[in-house]
Specification:
This protein has 288 residues and is α/β, with parallel strands linked by helices. An eight-stranded mixed sheet has the order 5-8-2-1-11-13-14-12, with helices on both faces. Strand 3 and strand 4 form a beta hairpin.
């Protein structure tokens, strides 16, 4: 009997500790960019879905933004369409752009909506092409990548409407221009812009690393907080490098546009979203 009481007391304690965080985020918008391992591993996927449902049940307005690179690649392979890379970045020809639309908006997006539904969450799938959520134009300056787009403008009204009706908006990051041409848009960049336009409380980018490490090979060297003014120095020092640079730049950009905090968290840890948001433990790197 004593064990049972202890377990329940422990549970109550955890909920009480989460209370100030729930109050802080109550009725506020939080944008979560979902990707990486958390998207491919079954257990992690289930954990992410239950985290999102829990957050929305305690009155936090969660917007889920996703890409789906691996799934796009797998589909292109199945269709026998070769993936060309220019400087390590996927080249998107017309045919590939159509596959991107099909996979992201048609499959990945609806799978996530259904998965949230299984966890008794009320989700609605959107993509950047809906009601001009993401107006895109051809990306300039990184060599010709074909139909890879940058965000020209964001219309968050549909997302706000969906939130006000009590649904969790799930947004696939494919956009189009005024001619209706489809563009593949980087999901981190899109999430950062959407968070800024929504005036979100914070942006959470899920990745496959602990966060920003002083020493890349040692997870104990996690840098827990970074002021955006320190970023150029950290890049110069080589602490932020490679694939981390664009992720960090998304965090800087979203904060410059008025979002209070941006987090890079480890999607390989179960319930990392809850640990980051509802406890003082924190789990990744916070940019402010």
């Amino acid at each position: 009997m004593g064990d049972m009481v202890n377990q329940n007391a422990q549970r109550a304690k955890i909920i009480i500790e989460a209370l100030p965080y729930i109050q802080k985020y109550y009725n506020k918008v939080v944008v979560i960019k979902y990707g990486g391992n958390a998207m491919t591993s079954e257990t992690l996927k289930q954990a992410v879905m239950s985290d999102i449902v829990l957050l929305s049940l305690v009155g936090i307005k969660v917007v889920l933004v996703h890409g789906g690179g691996p799934e796009i690649t797998a589909t292109l392979d199945k269709m026998g369409i070769e993936t060309k890379f220019v400087n390590g970045l996927r080249y998107t020809d017309k045919e590939t752009a159509n596959v991107v639309q099909m996979v992201l908006a048609g499959k990945v997006n609806k799978d996530l909506v259904a998965l949230l539904g299984q966890h008794k969450g009320n989700a609605l799938g959107l993509c950047g092409m809906d009601a001009g959520i993401l107006k895109a134009q051809k990306m300039q300056g990184k060599g010709d990548l074909g139909f890879v787009g940058e965000v020209q403008s964001v219309n968050v009204q549909p997302i706000l409407d969906v939130l006000s009706m009590g649904y969790i908006p799930v947004v696939a990051t494919v956009g189009c221009d005024s001619e209706g041409q489809v563009y593949n848009i980087n999901a981190d960049t899109a999430a950062a812009r959407i968070a800024a336009e929504l005036g979100a409380q914070n942006l959470i980018l899920m990745t496959d690393i602990r966060g920003l490490l002083r020493d890349r090979d040692d997870e104990n060297t996690l840098i827990e907080e970074v002021n955006v003014s320190e970023v150029p120095y950290l890049i110069k020092e080589g602490i932020i490098k490679g694939g981390m640079i664009p992720k960090v730049e998304c965090c800087v950009e979203t904060i410059r546009r008025g979002v209070k905090k941006a987090f890079i968290i480890d999607g390989r840890i179960e319930h990392s979203i809850l640990i980051e948001m509802l406890s003082d433990k924190g789990i990744g790197t916070m940019f402010y």
